[in-house]
Amino acid sequence: MQNHINTVFFDLFGVLLGIDQSVVVQYLSKLTNTPYLKTREITMGEPYMRLERGETKFQEYVEDIRALLLNGDRIDADRLRDIWMNSRVGELPAVSLLDKLQKKICRLGHFQYNRDSY
After folding, report:
1. What is 26-79 written as a DSSP string?
2. pTM for the whole thing?
């Protein structure tokens, strides 16, 4: 029996697959004695976005969140890097939408992208 591939998704890491950041946030929340949601807001906010875009290095990211978190001076960059690098890679919430997306694409039928049509 031969399987035919109907759809191919390309994930540039961070849409369908990514690191489970909750472990990192939980660690920092307990370490700095900051509520989880506040810690997540700070650590996954603008400093994280700059890191993801490659505008800063990890050490700069750590310095940024140290300055923003109460008791941020407790953060050891090497320990945080170890936790970060050993976080589980898994499916992100967008994966739950794939089934709905596939059904919509099937209803639309085949379509073709034409860059000159804009």
Report:
1. HHHHHHHT--HHHHHHHHTSHHHHHHHTTSS-HHHHHHHHHHHSTTGGG--HHH
2. 0.64
Q: Which structure tokens are listed for 116?
A: 């000159």
For the chain, the domains span 17-99
Q: What is the CATH number of domain 17-99?
A: 1.10.150
The token pair that represents 111 in the structure block: 């379509």
Sign of CA dihedral 74, 36, 16, 91: positive
pLDDT bin (cut points 50, 70, 90) of residue 43 is very high
Question: What amino acid occupies position 46?
Answer: E
- Min mean pLDDT across 6-10, 28-32, 83-87 is at 6-10
